User: Which sequence fits this backbone?
């Protein structure tokens, strides 16, 4: 019997995925007969996963999901679009195929939260009241906070960003185009706010470097990475390994730099050199030094925060470092809003110290659903989220450094006997062939 290469890889990745799932299986709750109206805001990774758990466990469910977009995006695939490993169409699915059958979809946007009155206001359908609210509208990317660029002008002046779907496609084309240039200076940046998939800016830098190497053009390009923080990644075991990789591959790393503006016509990027580096704590001070860097290709990361209707609501965090993004205040273990205990918050919008990834949502959703059902039944919420997040950093075509950690930078490796600071082909197989099926057929269905 012959087996195609793609099938072989998919089966292999499914095997690794099986280990991942088995390692992290939860069973916090059984079916409940409690009745209440639940409104879920946001039908992305977190909202749909919650809808799946809740509609499965509640016998008399009355669940509404408010989501404006007809097409759901598998965002972790954006990096692989830019790497020309996924086609752009591979990351898209109709939203209606993903929302559980028993859940009512209101195709609309929430524009206001009224937690004291237990309703949300939508753009087209007015007020929708609830007994319990699940807040999962993701995060907003504030492209305009970097002077000289907007989401609409991505690609102009060879400025790119894979955090945007069209941006990832343009970035793919720009990387390929490099091989037709004689030489060049490539500049990559991250940002000062908490961001979704903090590994993505590093992935695109390393992929570009590897692409040039594969095409025998590496020596014609100077590559620099400007980091806001004073390390490439936390926990240190991953940050140190990444620094070694950058050193081995001749990529310059400049810490404590924040991108403030870009002149796309002159191809110049202006960075502020920072004194104090804690994420989100650095004020934009006039007294601080500015440096201008010439570039031929710039990949930048926009500052990120909660969507405006969350930032402007009583749920927004107003003190400490998380106040910069206006993230939603939530208990980091139970995922319950401390001032409004009928509100559960998860996904990128949640103001926890956890890293914002789909992998985090896979661990948050069963906790959030179990605790919501406990509250509905008048019981104490006992399930706890340990801050687990995973970031598969593609270090080259065929290798991934799998970073898995929780609160307080605790290492939480799925396979504890493997050295975590080693890039591996098996994690590449999981990233390219396993995680997307696990996302659609496992996580979004509330099965893992
Ligand atoms: C380039 C990139 C690479 C990534 N790589 C990885 C990776 O390798 N591994 C990993 O685990 N994660 C990765 N992620 C992160 C992951 O995709 C996100 O953490 C995850 O999608 C967050 O889910 P969410 O539901 O909180 O937000 P989203 O998935 O963004 O969904 C939010 C939903 O809310 C809706 N919404 C917004 N505003 C409103 C409103 N006003 N009213 C109603 N609905 C609203 C939106 O339309 C959207 O559908 C990556 C992300 C990017 C962009």
Assistant:
């Amino acid at each position: 019997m012959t087996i195609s290469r793609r099938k072989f890889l998919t089966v292999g990745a499914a095997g690794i995925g099986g280990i991942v799932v088995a390692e992290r299986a939860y069973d916090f709750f059984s079916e409940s007969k409690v009745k209440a109206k639940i409104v879920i805001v946001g039908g992305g990774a977190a909202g749909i996963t919650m809808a799946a758990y809740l509609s499965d466990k509640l016998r008399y469910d009355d669940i509404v999901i408010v989501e404006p977009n007809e097409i759901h995006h598998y965002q972790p695939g954006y990096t692989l679009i830019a790497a020309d490993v996924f086609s752009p169409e591979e990351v898209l699915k109709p939203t209606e195929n993903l929302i559980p059958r028993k859940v009512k979809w209101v195709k609309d946007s929430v524009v206001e939260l009224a937690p004291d009155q237990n309703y949300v206001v939508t753009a087209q359908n007015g007020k929708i009241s609830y007994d319990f609210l699940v807040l999962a509208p993701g995060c907003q990317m504030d492209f305009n906070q970097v002077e000289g660029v907007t989401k609409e002008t991505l690609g102009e002046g060879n400025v790119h960003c894979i955090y945007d779907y069209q941006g990832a496609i343009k970035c793919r084309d720009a990387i390929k185009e490099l091989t037709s240039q004689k030489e060049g200076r490539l500049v990559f940046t991250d940002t000062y706010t908490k961001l979704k998939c903090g590994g993505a800016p590093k992935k695109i830098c390393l992929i570009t470097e590897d692409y040039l190497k594969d095409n025998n053009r590496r020596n014609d390009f100077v590559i620099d990475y400007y980091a806001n923080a004073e390390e490439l990644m936390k926990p240190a075991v991953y940050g140190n390994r990444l620094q070694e990789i950058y050193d081995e591959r001749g990529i310059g790393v400049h810490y404590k730099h924040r991108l403030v503006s870009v002149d796309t016509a002159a191809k110049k990027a202006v960075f502020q050199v920072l004194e104090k580096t804690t994420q989100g704590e650095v004020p934009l001070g006039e007294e601080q030094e500015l440096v201008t860097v010439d570039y031929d290709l710039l990949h930048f990361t926009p500052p990120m925060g909660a969507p405006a209707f969350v930032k402007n609501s009583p749920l927004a965090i107003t003190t400490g470092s998380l106040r910069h993004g206006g993230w939603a205040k939530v208990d980091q273990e139970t995922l319950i809003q401390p001032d409004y205990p009928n509100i559960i918050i998860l996904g990128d919008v949640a103001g926890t110290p956890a890293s914002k990834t789909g992998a985090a949502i896979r661990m948050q959703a069963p906790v959030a659903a179990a605790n919501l059902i406990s509250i509905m039944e008048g019981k104490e919420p006992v399930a706890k989220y340990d801050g687990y997040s995973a970031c598969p950093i593609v270090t080259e075509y065929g290798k991934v450094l799998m970073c898995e950690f929780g609160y307080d930078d605790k290492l939480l490796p799925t396979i504890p006997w493997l050295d975590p600071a080693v890039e591996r082909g098996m994690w590449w197989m999981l990233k390219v062939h396993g995680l997307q099926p696990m996302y659609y057929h496992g996580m979004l269905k509330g099965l893992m």
Observations:
- The longest helix spans residues 5-23.
- The two ends are 32 Å apart (CA to CA).
- DSSP finds nine helices and 22 strands in the chain.
- The pocket of flavin-adenine dinucleotide is lined by residues 41-47, 66-69, 75-76, 78-79, 109-110, 136-138, 162-163, 196-197, 200, 307, 309, 347-348, 356-359, 361, 390, 392 (CB under 6 Å).
